[in-house]
Amino acid sequence: MSGFPSPSALARTVFEALSAAFSPDIPLWIRQAWTNPSPPPPAPDQDVLYYHLVPEPAAVLTERERTGSRSVFFRFAPYRLNLVFYGPNAESLSWSVYQLLFLDGWGFPLSILRRGGIYPVPGAPGPSLIREEWEKQHRLRADLTVPLRVAFHESLPAPAEPWIQSVPEIRLET
């Protein structure tokens, strides 16, 4: 990964990974949340997954490697993947995604994420089940939040060694 990936590249990688988490015979719609125009609401008997990738306001992890006249900084930006499942199979589908994103199975969604420079952070809580009111009825909804790290690197000229040519003079005033 060179430089920071574009938001569209990140969304495409997440979509591919989520698609790989399900068998082709499962009738499930996977949609990006917060799109314009908004997609029509799902039918009550239809399974739908909405996903949204959000940067986290936390510190970026950085590792520095010096190679000759260059310094390479490997950075891992914190992100959060919000997944919202609707439909009669919302709970089982959310648990399936939770397990596959961390363990890799079926179509290897974890491998797809890693190839795109996206790394799920283990230890996330499982899905939460909600009965949501909608059009004077209750529909099943399962929410899952997956913490991620998005990898990128920068290569900069390394400063000349040593950085300090001589020991600075220290004076103590009394």
Account of the 3D structure:
The chain is of the alpha+beta class and 174 residues long. Helices cover 20% and strands 40% of the residues. It is built from three helices and seven strands. The protein has helices at 7-20, 90-103, 109-115, and strands at residues 28-32, 47-55, 61-67, 70-86, 118-120, 128-134, 137-157. Strands 1, 2, 3, 4, 5, 6 and 7 form a seven-stranded mixed β-sheet that branches. Helix 1 packs antiparallel against helix 3. It is elongated, with a radius of gyration of 22 Å. The relative contact order is 0.22. The mean pLDDT is 83.
Short description:
The protein is an alpha+beta fold and 174 residues long. The chain has helices spanning 7-20, 90-103, 109-115, and strands at 28-32, 47-55, 61-67, 70-86, 118-120, 128-134, 137-157.
Mean pLDDT: 83
Largest sheet: 7 strands, mixed
- The structure class reads alpha+beta
Q: Which regions have little confidence, pLDDT < 50, spanning 5+ residues?
A: none
Radius of gyration from CA coordinates: 22 Å
Shape: elongated
List how many beta strands DSSP finds.
Answer: 7
List keywords for this structure.
alpha+beta, 174 residues, single chain, elongated, 40% strand, 3 helices, 7-stranded mixed beta sheet
